[in-house]
Amino acid sequence: MNGLRLLPVIILFGLAGMLGYALLTRTEATQTDRFVGEPVPAFSLDAPAGFPGFAPENLTGEAYVLNVWGSWCAPCEVEHPVLMELAGEGVPIYGIAWRDSEANATDFLQRLGNPFSGVVLDPFGEAIIELGVTGAPETFVIGADGIIRARWTGLLTDDVVRRVIRPALEDGA
């Protein structure tokens, strides 16, 4: 009888273990989706005061990284040094602050540094819906022709940049 009481706990731990394994063993093959190979959707959002904004339709001619982030997002803060390093190398990065207030987004960038060539606020998820974003952080590589070359859902690491982001940037140049 006591064994039956433990069954739900055992099942819960088993499911949590499978989810953890799936998240830790993701590869670029598991990161493909229907948006790769499609044009980046057009959107028009406001920039935080004092920061340059952008619109995807005006960014043709050069491959770039598009990063969805939020000041409320702990993994976004963890991946921020990776974005700063890429920006320091001259990689153009544009950011969409999702579900964020202007004050919080501005504070985040002032505190941690601004890797973005342009940044916009998407407090209601307008662009996020068009991009099919499921959570933050999420990163896209957009080719010089405006076509989505790669998408990474989750935390950017040096390994992800090496295996996914850089090759897609080279392919999209």
Would you write up a description of this structure?
There is one protein chain. By secondary structure, the chain is α/β, with parallel strands linked by helices. The chain has a single domain (29-172), classed as Glutaredoxin, CATH 3.40.30.10. The protein has helices at 2-24, 74-88, 102-112, 126-131, 158-172, and strands at 64-69, 93-98, 118-122, 138-142, 148-153. The chain has a 5-stranded mixed β-sheet with strand order 3-2-1-4-5. A hairpin with a 5-residue loop joins strand 4 and strand 5 (148-153). The longest helix has 23 residues, at 2-24. It is globular, with a radius of gyration of 18 Å. The N and C termini lie far apart (64 Å). Residues 26-31 have low confidence and may be disordered.
Total DSSP helices:
5
What structural class do you assign from the helix and strand content?
A: alpha/beta
CATH class: Alpha Beta
Strand order of the largest sheet: 3-2-1-4-5
**Strand portion:** 15-25%
Q: Which ranges are low-confidence, i.e. pLDDT below 50, for 5 or more consecutive residues?
A: 26-31
How is the main sheet built?
Answer: 5 strands, mixed
CA(first)-CA(last) distance: 64 Å
| Whole-angstrom Rg | 18 Å
Give me the count of strands: 5
CATH superfamily: Glutaredoxin
Helix content percent band:
40-55%
The third-level CATH topology is: Glutaredoxin
The helix-strand sequence is HEHEHEHEEH
Question: What coarse outline follows from CA principal-axis ratios?
Answer: globular
The CATH architecture term is: 3-Layer(aba) Sandwich
Task: Domain count, please report it.
Answer: 1
Provide the residue-averaged pLDDT: 88
